[in-house]
Specification:
2 copies of one chain form a homodimer.
Chain A (H helix, E strand, L loop, with lengths): L1 H36 L6 H8 L3 H4 L6 H25 L4 H18 L1 H9 L8 H24 L8 H13 L1 H4 L8 H14 L4
Helix pairs in contact in A: 1-2, 1-4, 1-6, 4-5, 4-6, 4-7, 5-7, 5-10, 7-8
Chain A binds a DNA duplex through α1 and α3.
Chain lengths: 205, 205
DNA sequence: AAACTAAACTAACAAGTGTTAGTTTGGTAT
DNA sequence: ATACCAAACTAACACTTGTTAGTTTAGTTT
C-alpha cells in the first residue's frame, strides 16, 4: 500500500509538473504577444493561434486572461522586491548599492525581456492584484530613493536633486527590456558595467 | 459680390475653427484616457462618457478612433523631428547639442504630457501612419547617435559605448511624461538644467 | 417667420470579445 | 483489452466593440 501510495503520488506530481509546463508555455507566449501589442490588444484567439490551438483549449490550462497577466507581472515584481531587500541590507557604500541595483535590473531583464514589457506597460490592467503591485513598486522606489539620499548625506554622491537622480536611473533601467534583445552580443556583466559607468560617472570628459 | 464672398468665407472659416475646437477637446480628452489605460483599452463609449455625450455623437467631429490616435501621435512626432533638425544644423559643441535635446524634450513634454504617453506606448496601434512614424523615429535616433559619436571623436565626450549613452539619455527623456506632472513646482528650465547635469556630468562626486 | 447648421440624440448593425459546456482524441497505466 | 486522462476540439453564450443612419434640438442667419 505504501509503495502504491507513493507511486500514485509520483504520477500526480509528474502530471502537475507537465501541466505547469504547458501552462508556462502559454504564459510565455502571452508575454511575447503582450510585449508587441499590449495586454488589451491581444485576444485569447490571438494567443491560441500563436500556440497552434483553439481559444477554448487555453482554458484547460489557465483560468482567465487576467490570470495570465497576474502570473507574468507579480512573479517578477517580487523578484525585484527580494533583490532590493538584499541590497538595502548589505553593508556597502551607496555607490556600490547603486551598482548592485543596475546589476539586478540587467539580470532580471536579461532573463525576462518579454515579461518586463508587461511589468512596465500593462500593470494598470491588473485587477485583484493591482494594489499589491502598487505597494511593491512604491516600496521599491522608496528604498531606491533612500540609497541615493544616504549617498548624498555621506558625500559620496553629488548634491543633486535625489528624485531626479532616481528618476533618471530608474527609467533607464526600466527601459532595458527594449534594448537588451537588440544587443545580444553584449553580455549581462559588460552591459551592467558600462551602464553603471554612464549612469554614475556621466559622459562628460 | 466680393463683399458677399468674403463674408461667406469668413463664416466658413469661423465654423471650421469652431469645429476644430470641439474636435481638439475630444482629442485632448482621448489623450488623457489613452495615458491611463492605453489606446486599446479605451472604448469610444469611455471617451464619450468623459466628454459627457453619447458615443455616436463623437462621429460628428472625428472620423474614427484611429484618426484620434493619428492626430495625437503624428503632430508631436513631427515637432521632435523639426526640433532635432534645428539642433543638428546648429554650429555648437556636441555637449551643447545634447543640452538642447534635453531642453527640446522637457519643453515638448511639459506642453503635452498626455500625448507623450501615446507617442511612447501606443504608436504600434497606428495603421496607415505606422511606417511614417517609424521613419521619423529612426531618423531622430540616427541624428541623436551621430551627435554622441561626433562628441566622442572630438574628445568632448568620454569614450563610452555611444549606443549605451544614447539609450540611457533617450529613455530618461522619453519617460519625462510620467514625471513632469508629479513635479509641477519645478519649472521647465530648472528641470532641463538639473537633468542635463545628471545625464552629462554623472552623479559621482 | 423661415432656413440653416452644429451638435447632440436613438436605434441598430456586424464583428469581435472572454468564457463555458460538453465532446473527441490519442497516448499511458492497469 | 480497458480504464484513465491531459489536452485538444466544436458550438455556443452573453456582452462589448467601432461605426452608420436617420432624427431631434437649440441657437443663429437671412
Amino acid at each position: 500500500m505504501i509503495s502504491n501510495n507513493s507511486f500514485n503520488l509520483f504520477f500526480i506530481f509528474q502530471r502537475s509538473m507537465k501541466k505547469e509546463t504547458r501552462k508556462q508555455e502559454i504564459i510565455n507566449t502571452a508575454a511575447k504577444l503582450f510585449k508587441e501589442k499590449g495586454y488589451s490588444a491581444v485576444t485569447m484567439r490571438d494567443l491560441a493561434t500563436a500556440m497552434g490551438i483553439k481559444a477554448a483549449s487555453l482554458y484547460n490550462h489557465i483560468n482567465s486572461k487576467q490570470d495570465i497577466l497576474k502570473a507574468i507581472i507579480i512573479s517578477i515584481a517580487e523578484e525585484f522586491t527580494s533583490g532590493m531587500s538584499n541590497i538595502t541590507n548589505s553593508e556597502v557604500s551607496s555607490i556600490s548599492k547603486l551598482k548592485s541595483i543596475v546589476k539586478l535590473h540587467v539580470n532580471i531583464t536579461s532573463n525576462n525581456t518579454y515579461a518586463m514589457a508587461s511589468l512596465n506597460n500593462d500593470w494598470m490592467h491588473l485587477e485583484d492584484q493591482l494594489n499589491y503591485y502598487l505597494r511593491l513598486r512604491n516600496d521599491y522606489e522608496t528604498n531606491f530613493l533612500n540609497i541615493i539620499k544616504d549617498g548624498i548625506s555621506s558625500s559620496e554622491i553629488k548634491n543633486s536633486n535625489p528624485e531626479i537622480v532616481m528618476f533618471s536611473m530608474l527609467t533607464t533601467l526600466r527601459s532595458l527590456y527594449l534594448w537588451i534583445p537588440k544587443k545580444e552580443d553584449l553580455n549581462a556583466n559588460d552591459l551592467a558595467h558600462n551602464l553603471s559607468e554612464v549612469l554614475i560617472e556621466g559622459i562628460n570628459k
